[in-house]
Amino acid sequence: MVVVNPKNWHWVEKNTLGWSETYFQTKFIPLKYDHNDYDIEIIELDKISGDSNVSQRKGKVICYFDLNLKFKGQVTPKDNAAEPQTFTVTIPEFMHDEDQFLIQLDTASLQPESKNVVSTEFKKHFLDSILKYQADLIESHSAEIQE
């Protein structure tokens, strides 16, 4: 994208929703968490919708996004005695200006022991991973948008 924009003064905007879908497909499929008793991983990006943009004005790069995300996860006991169990992770409003947001876990099909691990340990691992999105988004697009 070549823009005649002396000293990057004028507003330039790039839609990054397609890039975001690819990002979550490659960074989160699989997103693994190794527990003593279970292998826990995200196995599918079920839904992504909303807005994601990188912009620059007056030489400053910013991003803004408001995404609705839904992932499918799987818990596999390490003793291999049981079949893998599935759960879902939904983030109804993943936004650029918040680092604390609602992460809904549907763990109804999980056994009580694995449900506790997913709800505490895996959820924290997931949050730590998803919070890298904004920095990766800006890093990936800042040079291109300032040409």
Q: Would you tell me which CATH topology applies?
A: Bactericidal permeability-increasing protein, domain 1
Record field, number of beta strands: 6
CATH uppermost class = Alpha Beta
Helical fraction equals 25-40%
Task: Find the CATH superfamily.
Answer: Activator of Hsp90 ATPase Aha1, N-terminal domain
Q: Tell me, rounded to a whole number, the average pLDDT.
A: 89
This entry's quaternary arrangement is single chain
Low-pLDDT regions: none
- Structural category: alpha+beta
CATH architecture: Super Roll
What share of the residues does DSSP label as strand, in percent? Answer: 35-45%
Count of spatially separate domains:
1
Protein name: Hsp90 co-chaperone HCH1
Domain Activator of Hsp90 ATPase AHSA1-like N-terminal: 13-143
Family: Belongs to the AHA1 family.
Organism: Hanseniaspora opuntiae
Describe the secondary-structure layout.
Blueprint (H helix, E strand, L loop, with lengths): L11 E4 L1 H12 L2 E4 L3 E20 L2 E18 L7 E11 L8 E3 L5 H19 L2 H13 L2
Antiparallel strand pairs: 1-3, 2-3, 3-4, 4-5, 5-6
Please tag this protein with its features.
alpha+beta, Bactericidal permeability-increasing protein, domain 1, elongated, six-stranded antiparallel sheet, 147 residues
Give a short summary of the structure.
This is Hsp90 co-chaperone HCH1. The chain is an alpha+beta fold and 147 residues long. The protein has one domain (6-145): Super Roll (Bactericidal permeability-increasing protein, domain 1), CATH 3.15.10.
